[in-house]
Each structure stands twice: as structure tokens, then as C-alpha cells.
Amino acid sequence: MYDVAIIGGGVVGCAIARELSKYQLSTVLIEKEAEVGFGTTKTNSGIIHAGHHSSLESLKGQLVVKGNEMFDELQKELGFGFRRCGEIVVARDEEDLKTLDELKELGEKKGVKGLELWDTDRLRREEPNLSISLTGALYAPTAGVINPYEFAFSLIECAQNNGIELLVENPVQSITSTDDGLVISTSQKKIKASFVLNCAGVFADDMAGLLGLSDFTIHPRKGEEYMLDKGLEGIVKHLIFPVPKGVSKGTLIIPTYDGTIMVGPTADEVEDKYNVSTTEEGAKKVFDFVSSMCPSIHPRSTIAEFAGLRAASNTGDFIIGTTDVNGFINVAGIQSPGLTASPAIALYVLNILGKQGLELIQKDEWDPYVTPPPRFAQLSPEERSQCCKENKDFGNVVCRCELVTEAEIQTAISHGARTLDGVKFRTRAGMGRCQGGFCSSRIMEALAEDQGKEFYEITKRGKASWIVCPEGKED
């Protein structure tokens, strides 16, 4: 019997788990994938929004600025990759310039700090590689970039260090309401809890449906993203947004935390909640648009492409609150700016739980910190030499493209990596130009040794995502 069960281990579920770990509660987080952060979290744009895009009347608009303000302290405590590079929304014509005025006014009403309108001269000075056809921009200095999967890993590690239980590879099959709580049946066990938080992303309406609730629907919106070679590092300094049109903030140019440039996303509604394919049409749409904003960007620079699904609801807003089933609370429809708002969402949910009768008694001791993993590539020559003296495994390079060492691989495994992607997202091994062609087999060997498995049993991301097949087992 748990006080709280969280269904879904994306950044929102993990942020709530960490917040609950401050209190004398028994809490479990249930995730269907092999590791947390393997759904929408690992395939989003990794942007911490300033907050001037969302309407004041929406729950998104009310939580995004508060969430943004919390990231500096969270980064100090958890050590994930985060940098405030600022964003600029660029205008193409007089109509766009009017929209920039409106966005600035909206942002100031919401408390977004430092908003500035730039004329063409200022835009050229700040971003000389952008198209000369652009007519102005709105600058928001509080926007930033983040490694969202690192954020999820550090949140859940902190939560576990403070007593939260994590169950992975436990897809929920049924939920039933009883007189004294809710019973969740997964593929492996039954779990009873006084409160259940539905943080299941694109599957949140399915989870609610298990209890006969049908007051909202999720319509997955697919976004294709394209990662470019590090040779383009520095081509833009800020996040580059077009003036937003319709349901999307548009196709962006993103200088990621680690230096690569990412372009995208598209915004196409799909029916299949597992459809994360990339398409020729999507690539053309993305590169035609971004090359019109920055002519130096070309599809030939692509080293990786992927797609993610936003959990867009029929309401167009976050759906956070109680339901007709006692103890079942929806935390659904968390699309952009959900990553930015996630720490504020956690506080919002905590307030709901308190009002619903959950006794929130703070622990006498709670540790907010986790030790960030080593980053050999970011060290000075002197620091690298010292690392090698202290641990010879720092001298063994496993990933040449990103300069990731054996010591970093072992650290990732000891901190919870169970798959090739788990190591990749914790270390960047496999994210470089060769996309794992050099390092994958060595990482798989380390994972197999740690888990006592055969080499061929190691997967890319869990389930049936096998990478190699032993002779005689082709079926």
C-alpha cells in the first residue's frame, strides 16, 4: 500500500516524484519503458521557454514563467546540462512586427524579464548568419537549452536517494477503484495506492479510460527533428523562433547545450501513438524553412534524425486536477511548454494532493543534491591528466566522436543505465558523427557484463529493440 503512485516516468512524473520525496510518504513511480525519460522526454526540443508565447488565461501560461525561474537552482542541485542562451523571435514582414509587439506586451504582463525589440541593425550584429530578409526580432534572455533526458535521470535519482521506489518495464494493464484506494495491475505486479497520478503522456487518456473516465482525449502531434554536425557549432548563438502560427511555435534553430545545432520540429497530428517515424516530406519541410532563416544550414549536415509525440489534448491546455474517481488525479495534456513548466507542475500537483487530504509532513532530512557525472570532453588537459592518474579507465576512450571514456560508461551504468540509449543519453556516447558505429559494441559488452547477460540480449531501448541476433535465433 502506497500513499501515492505515479504512472509515467517523463520529466513531469519524475519532477513530481522528487517533490514528493521531501515528505514522509510512501511513493512509487511506475514506468512502462526500460528507463525513465524514454518517451516524449527524450525526443523533445530541449528548450526552456521564456514564457511569452502562452496565453495568460491558460494553465500553461500560469505555470511556464514560474517553472522557468526554478531551473537555475535545480541545475545547481542536480547538475544536468542547462544554459540560458536566450531566444529571438524573428519577423519577416510588417505583420510579423505587429505580432512581436503583442508577444512583448503579453510577456511583460506575465512577468517575463528582459524582453527587447530589436531592429534589423541589432539583429545583424547579434546573429550575422541569419537571412538579410528578416526585418526585426523580439529577444527574451531568460530562455535556454537543456538536456531533457539528463534532467529526468537526475530528478529520479534524487527521488530514489530520498526513498521513492521506481518500477520500470511495468506497463499498466488495469486500474480499479476500491473503498480504500486504487489498485493498479501492471504486467508484473499489483500496486495499491491512496492516490494515483496520471502522468502517462500520450497514453494519459487511455489510463483514464481504464476507470471509465472520458472527459478528455489526447491527439498525438508528431514533431520531426534533425541533428546537425558539430561543424556548424556557433552558426547561431540564440534559439531562433519564427513568429508563431496556429497550434505550433514553428520550426526552430536550436543551439543545443552540447554544441550541436538541431532544427525542427514539424507539427503533424497522427493517430498511432507509437508513430515516431521520420519522413522525406518532414525533412523537406524543416530544411526549406530553416534555410530561409539561415541560408548556411543544409540537409547534408544531418547526422541524426528522430521524431517525438507531443501529448496534445482536445482542450489545447494542460489538464491537471481531480476526477470523478476518488484519488485519481490527471496530470495530462502536457505538451509544450511542459518541460519548462514541469517543476511548477510538481508544486501545483502537491497543492492538489494536500487539499485532497494527503498529509504532507516534511522529512527531518532531505538531500536535494546528486553528483553530476564526469564529462571528460569538457575538462582542461590538466584536469584530464589528473582524472587518468586517479582512475586509469579515464584513459580508455570508448566514443571517439564525443570523447567519452570507459570511466564515464561505467558511471552511467552504476547510476541506472540498462540499455544502449540509457548510456547514450547519460554520456553522449553514440551521439557524434558516426552515430555509435565505433562505440556501440564496447558499450554493449559493458552492459552485458554488468547485468550478467549475453551480448545479444542487450537492447537499444528495451523491449524488442535488439541490435544483434545470434546465429540460430533469427526467429
Q: How is the topology of this model organized?
A:
Elements: E1 2-7, H1 11-20, E2 27-30, E3 47-48, H2 59-78, E4 82-83, E5 87-91, H3 94-109, E6 116-118, H4 120-126, E7 136-140, E8 144-146, H5 148-161, E9 165-167, E10 172-178, E11 181-186, E12 190-198, H6 204-209, E13 221-228, E14 239-242, E15 252-255, E16 261-264, E17 268-269, H7 280-293, E18 302-310, E19 319-322, E20 328-332, H8 338-355, H9 381-390, E21 397-399, E22 404-405, H10 406-414, H11 420-427, H12 440-451
Parallel strand pairs: 1-2, 1-12, 2-9, 5-14, 12-20
Antiparallel strand pairs: 3-8, 4-8, 5-7, 6-7, 10-11, 11-12, 13-16, 13-17, 13-18, 15-16, 19-20, 21-22
Helix pairs in contact: 1-5, 1-8, 2-8, 10-11
DSSP strand content: 15-25%
Query: How many structural domains are formed by the residues?
Result: 3
Rounded mean pLDDT is 96
Assign the CATH superfamily of the largest domain. Answer: FAD/NAD(P)-binding domain
User: Which bin fits the share of residues in helices?
Assistant: 25-40%
**CATH fold annotation of the largest domain:** FAD/NAD(P)-binding domain
Largest beta-sheet characterization: 8 strands, mixed
Low-confidence stretches: none
H/I helix tally: 12
Query: In CATH terms, what is the architecture of the largest domain?
Result: 3-Layer(bba) Sandwich
The CATH class designation of the largest domain is Alpha Beta
Question: Nearest-angstrom radius of gyration?
Answer: 22 Å
Cα(first) to Cα(last) distance is 41 Å
